[in-house]
Amino acid sequence: MTAQNVKIIPATTKTAEGRNKYHQLSVAAYCRVSTEQEEQQNSYQVQIAYYTDKINSNKEWSLAGIFADEGISGTQAKKRPEFLRMIRLCEKGKIDLVLSKSISRFARNTVDCLEYVRRLKEKGIGVIFEKENINTLTMTSEFMIALYGSFAQAESESISKNVTWGKQKAYADGKVAFQYKHLLGYKKGSDGNPEIVPEEAETVKMIFEMFLDGLSYVDICDRLNALERKTAHGNTEWHRDCIGNILKNEKYVGDALLQKTFTVDCITKKVQKNNGERPMYLVSNHHEAIIDRDMFNRVQQELARRVSKRKTSDKTITQQGKYSSKYALSELLICGNCGSPYRRAVWTSRGKRQVVWRCISRLEHGKKYCTLSPTMHEEKLQTAILQAVNEYLGCRDEIAKILKANIGTVLECQGQEKILFLEKRLGELDNARNDIIALIASGGCDEEKMDTEFAKLYTEEHAINEQLLELKGKIKLSADTKNKIDTAMNMIENEKFELEFFDNVIIRKLIECIKVLNKTEILIIFKGGVEVKAEIE
Q1: pLDDT > 90: what percent of the chain?
Q2: Would 333 disulfide with which of 293, 329, 343, 520, CB 3.0-4.6 Å?
Q3: Beta-carbon neighbour count of residue 484 at 10 Å?
């Protein structure tokens, strides 16, 4: 038997991906700076120059590119476009070796750092970290990378906590940072404070007014698009989310609510809405308001009302109903028998189309839960409502007279009681002075001792005269106000208040509820509590 002979075939010296020592390596460098400060900008330029010179001066290397991300965080690779471009080129075999100043420059997330090092290592591509003197192709490199990567991540977390603490302190001190590029209606003023942009503020007011008029988000968007009103970003195309954000934004009333959201951790950068997990800070009257507080509060109430609408039909999948702005009666008309809302329906008989309103409970369950609700023809229903509204508005003469009388009474009484009291006190002081003079004349008291009493009387009398002068000035001002109100009331009396057609917006503004009592009668309850019965002809 022939003796077994084992011959060792030495490995070919390869540097990366099957290339031998006689071929140049394609070497790339990765640089990153964390901020946009001037000294960091200089560091960024220095790094590029350094690696360009280093690679080109090595005869075994050829420059495959300098990849640099500027002014961003290193905790997430997905936010570093140049880093990801370099990785893609590595995977395509265009790069054999990567140089980086340190692990913290390469990544401040331990998981990301190890993941990308392993991906490159599988391709035979090494990463050299100069500061730590680590080559990822060596056997012990991964342990050292994990160790230094953990240090880098811990540093990021420490910095993040310091930044968070600084923000919390700024919030507590009432310091507000405005994102003007996302905020319609304001710009940064010359003094650094928010300044109103008139044209944009007009758009904001229109949005609030249209919403209170009963329009839906989509309706408001359509109107703004037709008017070619611009958004905060200068576009003329509006979306419902934009309308909702404007209506809920407390900055339009002059306030600022701080820390509405917070970052969960510095690695994932996940931002979460603050539902009480963190404290919030409300800075009231921080800047000039575009919307008055009363209107803003009414909008918030209407938002809550629309969101909290209960389902009115068994066909509704969720427990929450949906607000409809198309027809005012969808919100107002209810059945006087079972309390369910009425729904609009279209009947077609022998080619003739009829629009009617029917009780939803009667529609879906028949007479089981609602036995007496009638079907109301829309045209007749609207005519009856229109007549009732005009009758209600026709009472304006009586209302105007009452209003004028009340205004006059209030203005006349304003300060009058105080004036009468002070004038009465002046009379008392005058009588006291006469009594003292009579005592002195009869020799009943020492004249020198009475000087102190005279001084007290004079001081009080002088103070009362000053108060009387101020009060009488206010009454004169009130009289001027009364004249202006009289002028306005005269204008109102000469105006004609009468609706000529059924307007959904006006009906919503005037009416609280409409109850269908029977087939020929409805009860209209106006806002303010006035009730008017109307007949259906």
Answers
A1: 10
A2: 329
A3: 9
